[in-house]
UniProtKB/TrEMBL annotation:
Organism of derivation: Streptosporangium sandarakinum
Pfam family, one: HATPase_c
Catalytic activity as recorded in UniProt: ATP + protein L-histidine = ADP + protein N-phospho-L-histidine
Top-level taxon of origin: Bacteria
Entry keyword set: ATP-binding, Kinase, Membrane, Nucleotide-binding, Phosphoprotein, Transferase, Transmembrane, Transmembrane helix, Two-component regulatory system
Protein name: histidine kinase
Length: 468
């Protein structure tokens, strides 16, 4: 059983006080029965000590022992009750004796500590059933008037079982169930936090590496199309581009199994739109930035990042224009990719897997949660993505990368009918330089105007390979 700790000793002391002090009360003290009272007190103290110590291992049996011993002594009660209109004497409710407080405390403890409530329920059912059967039998076969034992013992005993046993046990069981529920919720929250962190790290690795592989494929495509290189060098550059595309696809498949589509930041939180554009331009993407590139809005930065990543993957060499317009009501971010009829097709071995980011559907939902409007579709033979964002984001949208789970994204409404998937147009030359006049100017050939491509507004930018 082990040595009792301080709490158990304090509990024993407090529960023994009523048993020790009750015989000293003037109403209960009778000199003729003094020795009987002393022996009764000693028995009650022994029962209480043994029950408290045993309740640490088996809380139900000590509760039943104290409950039966306490309800047997019905000389005093907390109240009296009488059936009005019936010729029956009154009876005491909730017998009061030296074991009453111990019965209440141990019943509550049994409700809180017992892992299975069924044994206690069966014990209460047995006690109450025995008492009810005794009352019924004495009432039916006790003569014209019920036997005095019904009101003198059985009804007070039944009230003691209900009020000092079943009621505090039920309260303790309720506390236990609530504590277990809170524990389950904390464990679930901790597990979800670990999964979110793991998925965030996985997503961040996937997006960062996928973005770098797309830029590697872009540089390899530029080398493959360079006329001043020997044929074998251009062939090697083509093989490098194809290998980067295959690696991107394998990376998406492998890490996609481990994550829950929980978006993570592609760029550091302090990075601005111009930083994103400069990094893409330094990798060889023909990109031009117009307007205020110092914007650090996370949603606008994500729109630019995703658009440039898909342009680099699906249209290496095509010129891209990023325009940021600020106003009193909000900010408009527009990413445009013009194309010619000759550059509609996919280059041999170009990257075809889905992007590491969120795609058009995810960007539309992100912009909507930020309180803005998102548009994407064909324009003048090319493709344009437009996001209109309010000046102040709604609370919590800055943390969307860490909190938004892909499983919880609402379905994106589609307008119109299904149309062919979009392929980013390609140009035949690439290269870029950063000017110091406040914008990034592309050096590639200007793309000619071509026929317009159909696009579903809910289809991802990264579905050029036919995947939705």
């Amino acid at each position: 059983m082990g040595q009792p700790d301080r709490r158990e000793l304090v509990t024993i002391l407090l529960l023994c006080l009523p048993a020790v002090l009750a015989p000293a009360l003037p109403a209960w003290w009778e000199p003729a029965t003094a020795w009987a009272r002393l022996w009764t007190t000693a028995a009650e103290v022994t029962v209480i000590c043994a029950a408290v110590l045993a309740s640490r291992r088996a809380p139900v049996l000590p509760m039943l022992a104290v409950l039966v011993a306490g309800t047997w002594n019905v000389s005093e009660g907390a109240a009296s009750f009488q059936f009005w209109g019936l010729d029956l004497p009154s009876f005491k409710v909730l017998p009061l004796n030296g074991l009453t407080l111990a019965a209440i405390v141990l019943s509550h403890r049994a409700g809180r500590r017992a892992p299975d409530p069924r044994p206690a329920l069966r014990a209460f059912a047995a006690l109450l059933g025995t008492g009810a059967a005794a009352v019924l039998a004495l009432s039916l076969f006790g003569g014209p008037r019920p036997a005095p034992a019904v009101t003198a013992f059985w009804l007070p005993a039944l009230s003691g079982v209900l009020l000092s046993g079943l009621l505090p046990w039920s309260v303790g069981l309720l506390f236990r169930q609530r504590a277990e529920q809170r524990l389950r919720e904390r464990r679930l929250a901790a597990g979800q936090a670990r999964l979110r962190e793991r998925n965030r790290i996985t997503q961040d690795m996937h997006d960062s590496i996928g973005h770098d592989l797309a830029l590697i494929a872009l540089r390899a495509a530029a080398l493959e199309m360079a006329p001043d290189l020997p044929v074998r060098h251009r062939q090697a550059a083509g093989e490098l581009r194809e290998a980067a595309a295959d690696t991107t696809e394998r990376l998406h498949r492998i890490i996609g199994v481990l994550r829950e589509d929980d978006p993570a930041p592609l760029t550091p939180p302090e990075e601005s739109v111009s930083d994103v554009v400069e990094r893409a331009a330094a990798s060889g993407l023909r990109v031009e930035l117009r307007g205020d590139g110092s914007l650090r809005d996370p949603t606008a930065r994500r729109v630019v990042q995703e658009s440039l990543t898909n342009a680099a993957k699906h249209a290496p060499g095509a010129s891209v224009t990023v325009e940021v317009l600020g106003g009193p009501a909000g900010v408009t971010v527009e990413v445009t990719n013009p194309a010619s009829r000759a550059t509609m097709g996919r280059a041999r071995g170009g990257p075809s897997g889905p992007s590491g980011g969120m795609g058009l559907a995810g960007l539309r939902e992100r912009v909507r949660l930020a309180g803005g409007v998102f548009e994407a579709g064909p324009r003048n033979g090319g493709f344009r993505v437009t996001a209109r964002l309010p000046r102040a984001e709604r609370p919590g949208t800055e943390r969307l990368d860490a909190e938004w789970s892909g499983a919880e994204r609402p379905d994106v409404e589609r307008s119109g009918t299904e149309r062919p998937d979009v392929e980013w147009p390609r140009a035949e030359r690439s290269g870029a330089e950063v000017t110091r006049e406040g914008s990034l100017r592309s050096l590639g050939e200007a793309a000619e105007t071509g026929e317009e491509m159909g696009v579903d507004m809910g289809v991802n930018m990264d579905v050029a390979d036919g995947t939705r």
